[in-house]
From TrEMBL:
This is Glycine/D-amino acid oxidase (Deaminating). Pfam families: DAO. Keywords: Oxidoreductase. GO terms for cellular component: cytoplasm. Gene3D superfamilies: D-Amino Acid Oxidase, subunit A, domain 2, FAD/NAD(P)-binding domain. InterPro entries: FAD-dep_OxRdtase, FAD/NAD-bd_sf. The keyword Oxidoreductase applies. GO terms for molecular function: oxidoreductase activity. Residues 29-352 form the FAD dependent oxidoreductase domain.
Length: 374
């Protein structure tokens, strides 16, 4: 139990006035479990709606958001598939990140074009087909000359509206803000301690109209939502430094290189449904180094700064899991952002906040009512 809560409970048991203050201060509209990108952004949106919220997060638990490179890439895969609703989701994300940047006086979202290496004739034909499709025009550039260092025997083209979110800086700012407002408790939440009543929920002296779980891949263990078809995928990622001058654009050829400042860069990512270990592995490191060197015409010297692993909360149908429990509407979930949290979470957190505060309908593709319960 968090030390603050122990002392408040003890004091409130002694002094009736403090007890009434404590109980009033412990009643919330929404209790949010998890302070990755999903929980933090949903909390932020609900605060903008005037809700009284409390975020419960245990930073010693794994967090995909703390590992992710935060890449923003609307057109992905061999078939160059455009993110569904890209025309809505992307402006929503950029607008929200820019408003958070103004609020906190820091840059979080960095626009950066991407050089997409063409794998072969088939991929080139797909690119040529896509470039004349009106939906794709804002996101696909032209074939560009290959920079000297990049290994692209079949050529490359530019992708637009790409970039990366500095997820750790944003999460640090939001957590510090929640702490300053008294909206954050660094607890580990145990589902067995939750009481659901006709008036809402109660957890360790905290009462709320509802609780929303934003636990990332750990939702598999959540007794109210373990029927949702998650397909978690582990990923590893490296942070490196080199004296070689890399292109300033992101290089993407399956594995990717994200150039940062002063010779720093990231490379990733592995993709594995085997969760037998959540730790970074030697095999993962070897795969990433080989993949990174293969993107370049000749091997570069580098120093390894960091090697991290996390688990993406992927879903079977590749859409998020958002909504209230079909039998216990005091309990909800905001999860399933897979490999695209930085692009999707702003739009869907705004939509869920509208749903929770104003009763507006959820986007149907993300609403958990699409999944049969039981
Ligand atoms: C290697 C890798 C690379 C990635 N690259 C990208 C990328 O380039 N671009 C992109 O958009 N996305 C990327 N992703 C995916 C992205 O990280 C996720 O979509 C996003 O971070 C999911 O956020 P979340 O808040 O749902 O989950 P998480 O970040 O995992 O957050 C869940 C939080 O819940 C907390 N929690 C869980 N259970 C409890 C409990 N019982 N009590 C208290 N707290 C609890 C955890 O501490 C954690 O902080 C990547 C993921 C990985 C692993």
């Amino acid at each position: 139990m968090h030390p603050h809560s122990t002392s408040l409970l003890t004091i409130s048991a002694i002094h009736p006035m403090i007890r009434s203050m404590f109980s009033e201060n412990s009643v919330f509209d929404t209790l949010i479990i998890g302070n990755g990108l999903a929980g933090s952004m949903l909390a932020w949106q609900l605060i903008q709606h005037g809700q009284k919220i409390m975020v419960v997060g245990d930073e010693s638990l794994p967090s995909a958001s703390r590992v992710a490179a935060g890449l923003f890439n609307p057109v992905t895969g061999k078939r160059l598939v455009l993110q569904p609703y890209a025309e809505t989701v992307i402006p929503a994300a950029v607008t929200l990140y820019r408003s958070l940047e103004r609020r906190f006086g820091q840059c979080f979202f960095h626009e950066k074009p991407m050089l997409r290496i063409i794998k072969g004739r088939h991929e080139k034909e797909t690119f040529e087909k896509r470039t004349v499709e009106s939906d794709y025009i804002p996101y696909l550039g032209t074939i560009l000359p290959t920079p000297a260092l990049v290994n692209a025997p079949n050529g490359l083209f530019e992708q637009r509206k790409t970039g990366y979110l500095d997820t750790n800086s944003l999460l640090d700012c939001l957590r510090d803000y929640f702490i300053a407002q008294g909206f954050y408790h660094p607890f580990s939440f145990d589902h067995a301690d939750l009481n659901v009543t006709s008036e809402g929920i109660e957890w360790r002296g905290f009462k709320a109209a509802r609780i929303i779980f934003c636990e990332g891949f750990m939702a598999k263990e959540n007794p109210w939502f373990n029927w949702l078809p998650f397909q978690p995928a582990k990923g590893e990622i490296l942070s490196l430094k080199t004296d070689v001058k890399l292109p300033e654009k992101i290089i993407n050829g399956g594995k990717w290189i994200l150039p940062l400042q002063n010779g720093h860069f990231k490379t990733g990512a592995t993709y594995d449904h085997n969760l037998s270990t959540l730790e970074p592995t030697d095999a993962g490191k070897a795969e990433l180094i080989a993949g990174m060197q293969k993107l370049l015409t000749s091997p570069i010297e580098y120093s390894l700064l960091d090697h991290r692993a996390g688990v993406r909360p992927n879903t079977l149908d590749k859409h998020p899991f958002i909504g209230l429990h079909p039998v216990r509407p005091e309990i909800g979930i905001f999860n399933g952002f897979g490999s695209k949290g930085s692009m999707l979470i702003p739009f869907y957190s705004a939509a869920f906040a509208d749903c929770l505060s104003k009763g507006l309908p959820l986007p149907p593709e993300a609403d958990i009512s699409r999944i049969a319960y039981g």
